[in-house]
Each structure stands twice: as structure tokens, then as C-alpha cells.
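Before drawing any conclusions, I needed to go through one protein's amino acid sequence and its C-alpha cells, quoted below without any editing.
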Amino acid sequence: MKSRRSSPPVPATRQRGVVLIIALVMLVVVSLLASFAVRNAVSSEAVSGNVRTTALASQAAEIALRYCENATVTYVKSLPAGGTITYPATLASGPVLLAYTSGFATSTANWDVTSTNVLVVPSNAVNQGSADTFQRMPECMVENMPVVTPAGTALERTSTYLVTARGFGPEVAADDTRARPTGSEVWLQSTIQIQ
């Protein structure tokens, strides 16, 4: 009789759970990537919203600038030849021609009050169509700029005008008291010379 050789018994191995640990690590990595993607999307949306608001405020300021430029040209050209401008002189469309004072038009104290120096652009010139994009209408101010001659003397009444405008974003609330606005605000200036 032949003896059979039997192989030694295989020792019982313990399960180590490596697959479970790898799956948990992968789940954590995927969760972190998803949370970063969501945070990035929310941040990008906020940035694009701010860019849109600033662009709309810039458009409102541009509308006010052009509106006051046109009103100034119309008024000055309507004066008789050799006519003089008295200050303040109400323009046909509303703004006032002011004698130039350095820094006057850029000081918010001169804008954020109920004043006859500032023209509030009519809403039909700003909110065109059926949508009311802007709640607070843009504003502008016109100053007659002095010109300094080569001799150093200033000619007070000239044909050069400084137009200052400010526009507000759609989030700025309308305010009849014209208090300091809260929200986006854009300032623009131009100089025009009328021949």
C-alpha cells in the first residue's frame, strides 16, 4: 500500500479589509473634489454677477454723460451770438451750468443732497423698453471751465465745459432724498468745447 502524502494544512488567513479602506479613501477624495467644484462654481457666479452690475453702472453713467453733453450743446448753441451765460443758467433739458470750482464736481457732498446743481436723468432716457433695470437714475453736472491764457490770466466764460456724471447699478435703491447710495457707483467725466 502506498502512502499518500498529504499537503500541510493551509493556515487560515485573516481578512485585512484593504478594499474597504481604499473605497473609503476614494470616497473622501471624490467628496473633496465635488465640494471644491461647487465652491468654484458659486464663486464664479458671484464674480460674474459683480461684473454685470459694474457694467450696468458704467452704462448708466455713460447715458448721463451723453445726456448732459447734448443738453449743454443745445443750450449754448441756442444763445444769441455774443450772448453771455449767467450762473446758474438752467438748460433746456434741466442741468445747470455752473462756474467752475476746482473739485466741486467730484465731491460727493455736492451730489448727495437735494440740489439744483445736479440733473437727474429722466427714467425714459435710461430704462428703455418695458424693463425697469435701474431704480436710481444716473446724475450729471456741467461746469464752465476757465481757460488760462499764456499770460496766466483765467478767462472765466469760455466755450469749454466739464461734464461729470455718475451712474448706479441695478441694486441701488431709488431715493428721493438723494442720500449717499449703497451699492455700485461709476463716475465719468468729459470735456467738451462748443464752437
Remarks:
- The chain has one domain: 18-193.
- The CA atoms of residues 76 and 82 lie 11 Å apart.
